Amino acid sequence: MTPGAREGTRTLGLYARTNRFEGAMANWSFTGEAALQRNDRIDQDAWAGRVTAGYTFANMPWAPNVTLGYQSFSGDDPATAQLERYDPLYYQGSPSAWATGSKSASTFINSNVNALTLALRVQPTRQDTWTLRYAHIRANELNSPVQFGQATRVDLNGNVVSGVTDGHLADDLFLEYSRIINRNTFLTAGVSVSFPGAGIDTVTGGSADPWTGGFVNVVVNF
After folding, report:
1. Which phi and psi (to 5°) does residue 69 adopt?
2. What is the predicted pLDDT for the residue at 171?
3. Beta bridge partners of 15
4. What separation in angstroms does the CA of 17 have from each of 29, 30, 31?
5. Is 87 helix (H, G, I), strand (E, B) or coil?
6. Which CATH class is domain 10-220?
7. Which residues contact 87 (CB under 8 A, 6 or more apart)?
8. Residue 75 backbone dihedrals phi, psi, to 5 degrees
């Protein structure tokens, strides 16, 4: 990181979450977040936002919960002199929060990107939870850096170009399992796959291969 590169950056964040409803809305939950970012030194004017709506089928076996979400982080408009690209600052890597996708979150850190997300969670027992997540990921601005410089390249004419010419970046699937072993020990495991979109295929010059991964994590509290 360049020393002083973020000097003068101001970020205002707002967060709201519903308390437990009663009556007909008892199984619904909603969240909303927004961030405004300014830096007069570099003429930056950026924004980010996220909304989710969840519903729990409380009377069904395993109490399924479905959550639909949308999040967006501004990108730099190449047609203006102003910098509109959002700086993600300290990045949140959880797909249940601000992370954009699963495997894609390692590449498309939250700048010039948006995602439509869907999650299905079931609890076969009080100790076991399964969650399947899907994310459709797109770039906000074409021909503009994705994150801080990915997809910057030299074209056949020797010109330096940035970003993608098609907004579709990827589609992610992520299956996660959590187990409460005892009051001090917790197990989490997951597998994920990211299918590159047309925007990535155009950059690579062909059909890019899916990106797969998995993990197992055990936490013991003393």
Report:
1. -140, 160
2. 97
3. 33
4. 8, 6, 4
5. coil
6. mainly beta
7. 6, 9, 11, 37, 44, 46, 111
8. -115, 165
